[in-house]
DNA sequence: AGAATAGTGTCTCTAAGACACTATATA
DNA sequence: TATATAGTGTCTTAGAGACACTATTCT
């Protein structure tokens, strides 16, 4: 079924009906063994058969864009965005981006903790995690560009929001949080300065009173604070 | 004419064709007499007849999204984005946002200098500038929300990019640049500290060697520098 | 005791904010 | 000379980066 808009959108405008296929694509990032990873699916049919692509699919008739992205994430990974973070990234609509016709894709960015439940066993045939540094060939469609934009968005948002916590489990140590920054930015940070910074920036993290039990001195466990923005920001060098 | 995508988008996906109307809407900002202003058009037909709305229209069949936004800007204002700035803002696709049917709008943000050529005389019947602080009723559709998002984007980008120069003519004084910050942020800034900051931040502005001729000591004229990002940023209090 | 990891204290340097002062034009 | 606007210098303070040191666990 196709919905048709009747009448001019506004006076002075033209009447071309602009019916276009709308999809959502997902840049799903997580951190595994200290490395930034992205979820990719292998294309089984043309175009770009055999290439890796971002997960995604068509927006349903009566479905919000963010809801569509959440549904696709669930279908492809078997996991909800609940413990992590999901936001709109950017919309890609260049006429030639899909050889089959005009498709506008509203890309979304998801940040997830490294969940114990693996991706396998979900609906998605070939969804798998790939270390960002080790992606072999070019991705299908313009997904390479979308992936780059998503990674850059994540890198930038770590600076001025507490979003690094989306990569962590509900309770985490300062060292784990620092590991997120190091993996996403591809740098190393001074553990002492980072600790001071993270614990003194208002609303970034709150102590739970609990401690870890591993080798070495036990680390205090923290939960995400209520700040939406970091004041002052945690800038990259 | 309607383009239809044949075949599944990718394996594992569903087959709903997701045909939706795609439009571009524009948040066009400028500064007039020291106040931040937005370009609005009055709706002559239902729905929302008589209400103010953002300019916009349908994306053409073989047209890029940014190009569509540029075209609408030209049609509504008679002016190109060339001297200013145009970027994608965000996409709005809530199912109920247009009572006539499913319409996904890719909103764009345009920042323009206060051009001597007025908006009148252009294609647009009722396009006019409105002081942001003095917009009477609610806007049509979800345009109030889009406008808020656009203004917030502009406010944020002044912090860490040299985008304030998009509101200025090609050559401008430091006092004019400061006026942009004050209008967009709705604050007052210390003229002396701002001068130091603007002239010492690498790549923000470059001197032309020219000077103004008005009352008082002549001010040096500057042009936009080649920096894409301000290091360090110029943060709001 | 020794290894391993967590967390604190201190110093230096950069940059922001407050504000007095100097500079150069017009009326 | 008065007025108006442009631009510089200085002081204080917040915060980032470098890095020595202390703390608390396990083996």
UniProtKB/TrEMBL annotation, chains A, B:
For this protein, the record's Gene3D superfamilies field holds: Nucleoside Triphosphate Pyrophosphohydrolase, Winged helix-like DNA-binding domain superfamily/Winged helix DNA-binding domain
Q: Which InterPro entries match?
A: NUDIX_hydrolase-like_dom_sf, NUDIX_hydrolase_CS, NUDIX_hydrolase_dom, WH-like_DNA-bd_sf, WH_DNA-bd_sf, WHD_NrtR
* UniProt keyword annotation of Ion transport present: no
Domain Nudix hydrolase, chain residue ranges per copy? 21-152
Return the CDD domains for the record. Answer: NUDIX_NadM_like (cd18873)
**Keywords annotated in UniProt:** Hydrolase
Domain of life according to the entry? Bacteria
Q: Quote the PANTHER family the UniProt record gives.
A: ADP-RIBOSE PYROPHOSPHATASE (PTHR43736), SLR1690 PROTEIN (PTHR43736:SF4)
What name is this protein filed under? NUDIX domain-containing protein
Question: Which lineage is the organism of this entry classified under, starting from the top rank?
Answer: Bacteria, Bacillati, Actinomycetota, Actinomycetes, Micromonosporales
